[in-house]
Design goal:
- Keywords: Signal.
- The protein has 3 domains: about 35-190, no CATH class; about 205-350, no CATH class; about 365-530, no CATH class.
- Helix content is about 10%, strand content about 40%.
- The protein contains 6 helices and 35 strands.
- Strands 1, 2, 3, 4, 5, 6, 7, 8, 9 and 10 form a 10-stranded mixed sheet that branches.
- β21 (about 320-325) and β22 (about 330-335) form a beta hairpin.
- The longest helix is centred in the first third of the chain and has 29 residues, at about 1-30.
Amino acid sequence: MKNRRINSLISAVALLVLVWACSRSEVSDSSTPKVDITFFAENSGPTLKNGSLDLDAILAKLDCDNVLLGEDAAANYRLMVRLTGANAFDKTYFLAFDPVGAGVASELLQLNADATYSIERFALVEKIDLNGDWTVENTQMVMATPENNSAFMDYVAEALPFEFTVGKYEKNRIEIDLLCFNQQIAPAFGFEWFDYNIVQGDEVCVFINCINENDPEHYHQVYPADLAAWVPFDLNSGNAYWDIGPNYTVVDNAITGIYPVCFPLYAPAIEMTDGLTLEIRPAFGELNNGEVIYSDVFTVTIPQSIILEYLGLTSYVGAPILIDEIRGITVKVDLAPDPNVDNPRFIHLEYLNCLEDPNDPGGNCETAFAYNETYSSCFFDYSYLISSNRWGWTNGPLVSSSTPYEFTMLAGAGGGQNEDPPQCHPESGISAGTTTVTYNGSLVSISMNISSDFDLTQVHVWVAEGNAGDDPDPRIPHYQKNNGDIVYTLSPGKYTVVDEGLTENTWNTTLDGFGGRDIYVIVHAVVCPALPQ
């Protein structure tokens, strides 16, 4: 009986051992062994074989040699590696490293063998808060590997992302090139705006200042305005790439808190050979029934050299560049008033005598608009479409007719813009000549004849077909933005026809493509006292 129990116990133990062995074998066969790998990082040279000299010059100015291989590099920096893989694997590592040859080798990292991973981000990073942990949010890039299809991708052997397979019985060393990094040229690495909260991308901050021509070295008033940014060659397409908005706040029914505006660039600065165009709609520091009173929209183009200078990619000069001779607007890079700001530089637009009447073309010249008692209505009547202190008249509706429409070109008739409500004063205007509009259903012909007392220098014409009250309303000049919004403007530079630098007192044009409906016409001219013959 005792032997039977012993034999049963032995059989049970043997069975348990067999089951354990089978189970152990199954686990061993189905588990994936871990394999050590290391990342070898090396500073890539700043010269591209295809000879992209502009990009070479930028990289040559960025010196990271001591950062990667300095005595304290391993203590102060980490290699940040973001890996993705099968089964929703997505993890970011912060690896210590040691110098090896011309580069550094990271500490060993264990990954599954016979598996494929993708390197999504590879960078040398340092902590922002030294007391915090090594996290994505608490690090900033010092060196980085550019991404595929970026401006810098050809400077490295492998741009990101790229895949590698961990071999089971191989020496797994992944070699990656790094470039010295500057967050201002982040788009050239292909990084997204605010990606990982460590890349801020190309950004500019712009001040608009009034200056006095008798004291051009000092700022007198920061100028309130509403702004949008444009790719220069898209300026007339309605495709503003960034609606910046106002550079002020409204408190207690008054404009206050005027500040610089900051916004991302539409491309890496090195690619912006045509510069950056700002559309500026100046405000006049007062409100009418709670609405800001704006002047006319005008545009200025900031050259690429200023943007590169601002970003610190070229030597700091700070000398002003004249970019708008008519308005006396200069642009320069200047230091911020507060030395503690993150970026000590600002782009300063200096607007000569910007608080003067925008209706005054300067000198002894006058602005003139076509007027007819029957067809003309004052711009101020359309304050619900656009608040502006520009006087003038829109004319219509004009129907298709064999009889021409006759208008007088009235100058100096805007003395009522400060009245409540503001008004045009044709009775105070001076006749500077005549304009004839002929509309035959598909063609609109406009002829101007300025009297010999004046010299005609500029003509701006708006012609639109449609019904009063349409959306958009044809009576007031307008254009469409890329988001579909309609922007009304009384700036002559936005009219249908812009013709400047004239030397003759007669002028005419013909426009085609009308469908026979009612039209509305604005004719603006700049006339100056006639020079002695």
